[in-house]
Amino acid sequence: MNDAIGRVLLVGGGPGDPGLLTVAGRDALAAADVVVTDRLAPIAAIAEHAPQAEVVHVGKIPRGEFTPQERINELLVEHALAGRTVVRLKGGDGYLFGRGGEEWLECTAAGIPVDVVPGVSSAFAVPALAGIPVTHRGLSQGVAVVSGHVAPDDPRSEVDWPALATSGLTIVVLMGVATLDPIARALVDAGLDPATPAASIADGAGPDQRVVHAPLSGIAAAADAASIAPPAITVIGDVVTALEQTG
Q1: Per the residue annotation, which of 27, 175, 181, 224 is the catalytic one?
Q2: pTM
Q3: Which of 42, 82, 201, 241 places its Cα 20 to 30 Å from the Cα of 6?
Q4: Is 60 a catalytic residue?
Q5: How many whole angstroms separate alpha carbon 12 and alpha carbon 14?
Q6: Identified catalytic residue from 33, 60, 203, 238
Q7: Cα–Cα distance, 135 to 237 (Å, whole number)
Q8: Ramachandran angles phi, psi of 56, nearest 5°
Q9: Is 175 a catalytic residue?
Q10: Pairwise CA distance, residues 232 & 209, whole Å
Q11: Active-site residue among 17, 38, 90, 93?
């Protein structure tokens, strides 16, 4: 083991298009000895900016192959303790459902210096690329970004769906493809107008990006009919048709 401790850079890679990687993210890759990357990170940027680096793939496939978070933490610590500069490259922003905080805690507990490079969040960038502003004057004064990885009636759910239904906020649901139907039903049951505009966006920021529009009551069926699959984002609120109304 190298006597000198390395460092870890937690880099948000943006929503997938390498052009949306920040300059700071690019510079971090250029300095990397090791890149520990998610499958939704801008993989092409690694080859371009970090050809010298060892690349470790730790992506998580929904209901498929995945690397446990505990093992990812161990990899970051092991490589940094060996004196290497480690870039942990994630899709979007690592501090929004990216477990960046957990990795920061693990590394600092091991005495490893950590730098954070924020990324362009898919929660806002993907709707924008689909023509949807998540806030819009006269329609929405705020936005709530929530995880849909468990259904509203699942004991593991920590989201107050009834409160969201009456909040007047735009609702952006990440990781909610499989649970979109119960999410929509829970919102309608709690008072949100079933005619509220909604859109599901698959493969955002990529060449295969697809958008499906429907009222809230029908968005799950429309997404299913269009074979919307992860990664996908659903936006619920009047902002979905804002540019159609005002453009």
Answers
A1: 175
A2: 0.94
A3: 42
A4: yes
A5: 6
A6: 60
A7: 9
A8: -115, 120
A9: yes
A10: 9
A11: 38
CA gap 99, 128 in Å, rounded = 24
Measure the CA–CA gap between 112 and 117, rounded to whole angstroms: 16
Secondary structure in 3-state letters for the chain: CCCCCCEEEEEECECCCHHHCCHHHHHHHHCCCEEEECCCCCHHHHHHHCCCCEEEECCCCCCCCCCCHHHHHHHHHHHHHCCCEEEEEECECCCCCCCHHHHHHHHHHCCCCEEEECCCCHHHHHHHHCCCCCCECCCECCEEEEECCCCCCCCCCCCCHHHHHCCCCEEEEECCCCCHHHHHHHHHHCCCCCCCEEEEEECCCCCCCEEEEEEHHHHHHHHHHCCCCCCEEEEECHHHHHHHHHC
Distances (CA, A) of 195 to 62, 93, 165, 189: 30, 32, 13, 13
- Residue 38 is a catalytic residue: yes
pLDDT tens, N- to C-terminus, the chain (247 residues): 456 899 999 999 999 999 999 999 999 999 999 999 999 999 999 999 999 999 999 977 666 678 999 999 999 999 999 999 999 999 999 999 999 999 999 999 999 999 999 999 999 999 999 999 999 999 999 999 999 999 999 999 999 999 999 999 999 999 999 999 999 999 999 999 999 999 999 999 999 999 999 999 999 999 999 999 999 999 999 999 999 865 4
| Residue with token string 């009834």 | 162
